[in-house]
Write a structure and sequence with these properties.
The protein is mostly helical and 626 residues long. It has helices at 2-65, 87-97, 104-107, 111-122, 126-144, 153-177, 184-208, 212-230, 237-245, 247-267, 279-285, 309-328, 337-361, 367-394, 399-402, 412-434, 453-472, 475-498, 507-527, 535-544, 547-557, 567-573, 579-586, 605-625; strands at residues 275-276, 302-303. It is rod-shaped. It is found in: Cytoplasm, Cytosol.
Length: 626
């Protein structure tokens, strides 16, 4: 009787335990998602704690560097998700974090699985159950990899990867406590299939994405998945390789976005000095990027030497650096500062430098705006130092090490173009004032008192320009611009003598031009005190810009112009003069009665004849040479 009941009991036990096992398979799938979410959330929280600690360390190091006193630095804390911890703790946390799916901790109970395995062992069906379990888990894993087309991957990627993480956390638990239900090769085969599928999904999704921030969000979650599962012994390198493979695409998208922002920031700027009324504005726009030139807090309202584009560009570049470091971090590459620095150079050269260069070459800027752009570039040079240091600090590289790979100022093209534009606009204004030279009387009986009109107008304009420029332009830039302007004045004065409209001129005209030159030389001497060098050195540099005009006037006023032919005298006193110009100008030199080389401040005929002979000899010799 009992023997006849055994098959029925056996069949009943199989049906009952199969039903319990099937119910457990449904529950474990839901529980796995919560397990993965909690495990990844723990890794994320631990990463955030580590980054906060590093930020405090950087702040302490910076304070110590600037002399605010040494601060005790705590040793870095590295997080870990203990694979040997009781998985029930994770499930309990998942249960507390879920309001939709009930008690995940209860669902994670492996007792039904182990009971089913034990009964099948007792019934002599152990291998059959192992195969059945593995096949059903494979089917579940395959189902988990079905990416829905209803919701964008950006919205569903966390559930997708959390489901995978939870799946393999469960398998690791069963491998260690299941009494041989599954084997390491079996789990490894499942993981290899899962990795291949995740790589395929990531490749496909990354190829579709056209927003840098979307790539960054998914990359961060995948890296957390890698951190989580690596603690359980799973090889995650293929996933990290996918992230590294799309590094260039991410930065290209980020560069495109930053390029648009840079253009918008420049378009929105009126290129006027920025006014800051409150201390927080100063902190946000100056101290935040280490643009200050003094440790003393200024009085408010404060007028900065730069315009609003500078802090706007600084915020764009700083955000780029932080996003770049965020993408490169936790991707398996430890020393990624050279990569971040290379992309930073690309941003500065391809976006910032190129955009400012287009602005400068666009032709829409006036003198005051060009001067402000040139002043901005000097401030941006300090800002680029900050970007470099910021990238090194975020990358965990000591500054002394990072300095070895330091490059030249990356905005050099736009800086030079801004300075050249300012000089070109100033030269254009000088040309306008030189139109007044049409009123110069080249054959007047007496020289004009106080110089010619054009020189006085130029001096007034230059003095007005300098009074504004010295407040915002760096002194080296201002000096170079003034040298260029005065050199242009010199060229214009020489050009007056060479002009086809001037058929002849006399000594009175030369004396008037000499008075003009003295005005410009006095202007240069008065400015010498602005510069850091000695007054004598500065005055000499500025006056040397007009040396050609001065040498020409000196030659025309000389009692012995033939001395120009003496190599020693020419090298000492007339080394900037071209002999062809000297010939052309000397041939125009007349007095009021059309006689060559008339009075030079004296009335004596004997002296005039001597000078006339000297000039005739000079012209004849120079013609022979030519």
């Amino acid at each position: 009787m009992l023997a006849r009941a055994v098959p029925a009991v056996r069949a009943y036990a199989q049906r009952r335990i199969s039903k319990d096992f099937s119910d457990w398979m449904v529950r474990i799938r839901v529980a796995s998602r919560h397990l993965g979410q909690v495990a990844i959330a723990r890794a994320s929280a631990a990463r955030q704690r580590e980054e906060d600690l590093r930020a405090k360390q950087r702040q302490a190091e910076e304070q110590s560097r600037v002399g605010l006193g040494p601060l005790a630095l705590a040793a870095p804390v590295y997080y870990s998700l203990d694979a040997d911890a009781d998985a029930d703790d994770i499930a309990a946390a998942a249960a507390q974090s879920s309001d939709d799916d009930g008690a995940a901790a209860q669902w994670f109970d492996l007792t039904p699985l182990y009971r089913a395995f034990h009964i099948h062992q007792t019934l002599g069906l152990e291998e059959r159950f192992k195969k059945y379990y593995l096949e059903n888990r494979k089917l579940q894993l395959t189902s988990d990899f079905q990416v829905t087309s209803v919701a964008p991957f950006l919205e569903s990627h966390q559930q997708f990867f959390a489901q995978v993480a939870g799946f393999f956390i469960v398998e690791d638990r069963i491998l260690r406590t299941g009494g041989g239900l599954i084997s390491r090769p079996g789990v490894d085969a499942l993981w290899e299939a899962a990795v291949a599928k995740m790589v395929s999904v990531l490749e496909d999704q990354f190829s579709r994405m056209q927003t840098a921030n979307h790539l960054l969000l998914i990359k961060d979650y995948v890296s957390l998945l890698g951190v989580t599962l690596r603690r359980y012994g799973y090889a995650v390198d293929p996933l990290l390789d996918v992230l590294a493979k799309h590094r260039d695409k991410y930065h290209d998208l980020l560069l495109a976005d930053c390029r648009r922002q840079v253009s918008e920031a420049l378009a929105a700027d009126a290129f006027e000095q920025m006014l800051m009324k409150k201390e927080y504005e100063y902190s946000m726009n100056v101290l935040a990027f280490q643009l200050q030139t003094s440790d003393i807090m200024p009085a408010f309202p404060y007028v900065a030497p730069f315009s609003s584009a500078v802090p706007s560009l600084c915020r764009i570049v700083r955000s780029f650096v932080e996003d770049s470091v965020s993408f490169m971090s936790h991707g398996g590459q430890l020393d990624f500062f050279p990569v971040v620095n290379r992309y930073l150079d690309r941003l500065l050269s391809e976006a910032v430098d190129a955009s400012i260069l287009r602005l400068v070459e666009g032709g829409g800027l006036g003198v005051s705006q060009a001067m402000q752009v040139a002043a901005n570039m000097a401030v941006m040079e300090r800002a680029c130092d900050f970007f470099f240091r910021h990238a090194a600090q975020l990358s965990g590289i000591p500054l002394r090490v990072a300095e070895r790979g330091r490059r030249d100022f990356p905005l050099k093209k736009s800086r030079d173009a801004a300075e050249e534009l300012l000089l070109r606009l100033l030269r254009s204004k000088i040309d306008e004032f030189f139109l007044l030279s049409e009123t110069v009387s080249w054959m007047a009986d007496d020289p004009p008192p106080g110089g010619n009109d054009y020189s006085n107008e130029v001096i007034i304009y230059l003095e007005t320009f300098v009074s504004t420029a010295q407040r915002i332009l760096p002194l080296p830039v201002l000096r170079r611009v003034l040298q260029g302007v005065l050199a242009h004045v010199s060229d214009k004065i020489v050009g007056l003598f060479l002009s086809d409209s001037v058929k002849r001129f006399n000594a009175s005209a030369v004396t008037g031009v000499d008075a003009d030159l003295r005005l410009f030389e006095s202007f240069a001497e008065n400015l010498s005190g602005l510069f850091a060098d000695s007054e004598e050195s500065s005055a000499t540099e500025l006056k040397m810009a007009m040396v050609e005009a001065r040498q020409l006037v000196n030659l025309l006023m000389s009692n012995n112009p033939e001395s120009f032919l003496n190599p020693v005298i020419r090298e000492r006193s007339y080394n900037k003069l071209d002999y062809k110009k000297v010939v052309a100008i000397s041939e125009k030199f007349r007095d009021s009665s059309d006689r060559l080389f008339s009075t030079f401040g004296t009335r004596g005929a004997k002296t005039n004849n001597t000078k006339k002979k000297s000039l005739d000899a000079l012209i004849k010799r120079l013609r022979d040479v030519s």
